Structure formats: C-alpha cells, structure tokens
Amino acid sequence: MSTRVALVDDQHLFRAGIAMVIGSQPDLEVVGEAEDGDEVLDLVERTSPDVVVMDVRMPRVDGVAATAALRDALGEDAPRVLVLTTFDLDEAALSAIEAGASGFVLKSADPELLLASLRAVAAGTQVVAAGATRALVERFRSRGRRSPGPEYESLTPREREILRRAAQGLSNAEIAAAEHLAEGTVKTHVSRVLGKLGLRDRVQLVVYAYEHDLV
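Given the sequence above, the corresponding structure tokens read:
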C-alpha cells in the first residue's frame, strides 16, 4: 500500500515541486494540498493522509500551531507530521517537535533525503535535521526537570534501560549489541515503551526522557 501524503505550504511553486517528486515514487501518493495551517484539519479529515509535510512558517497559522491543533483534535489518530524549515536550528521547528511533529528536514535538502525522511516518519522513525538534535536536547536541559509519573513506573527494568539508550540516540542495532539482545526484541521493547508512555515515536521519547531527567 502507498503512503498517503498531504502537503501544506504557502508557496505554490515549491508545493508543486514537492508534489512532483513524491508523485514519482510508486510507494508514495499525494492525496491533498493546502496553502496555510488553518486549512490542515479540514485537509486531514477529507484525505486521511499518513503523513503531513508542512512548512513551519506560514502567514496565517504556522506549522507549530497547526501540528498542535491536529494533536488536540485527533489525538493518537492524527497523522504524522514532517516539518519543512529553512534553517537546521530553527526554533520554530524545535517547537513543532514539542507540539507533536515526528521530525523536520531542510527545504534545501536533496529530493532523495526528503523521500527517505517521508518513509522514515511513516514507519515511525524520527527525522531531525543535522545539527538540530543537540539544540533540541539543550533546550530541554535549560528547563526545570520534573519527576516521571506513574506511566514510567509501569515500565520493566529492561524497558527503562531501552528507553535510556534510545534517548541517547542509539539505533535498535546499537541497543541490541549493548544489551545482548536480538534487534527484533529491541524493536518490540521500544514499541512497548512508546505504548506505555503514550508516545508516538522516538522523537517524543527523547523529549520525554530529557523532560523527566532520565538521561
């Protein structure tokens, strides 16, 4: 089955270019477009995309507010959001991650990177532009930490260790090697951790870990 993609960007020519790139792939399908964040919820309800590719800066409602609105209205049924930004250390893009986006890539990225990012986000993997992960971490370090709630207590000791290693940026293969586990077992553990903590993907896992002083 094709991954259904919706595009939200106020620049028509840029949006058309992305649509052509995505439409050239047999496993990706553009199902709808909008030119501003205030149209996102209606677009999603009409087209049921798996991923929304969204500009972070738009005239009426920016990508941060639009991402938050999707999460508020649809909860866990909201599509994943891949944010497009001009700068890899864009504060607005980092805010979009906090609002629930699964990652962001630069507008200047090669088409192959955009396509790979789309597929990764659709599969539940985080995508963060080069250089931005450290900024994201430092942003949470600068805040006051708080103790985790009862949802964390539901994790087994093994799941807590998987959470810590994943939050440090280790891949499933690297965690498997460190914990002497099969990679498939690690993937299962990560899925369980996300489910118990009510998180959608590994970006939110990183945010949770730093917010609660677990790394």
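The chain has a mean pLDDT of 85. Try to locate this feature in the token string yourself.
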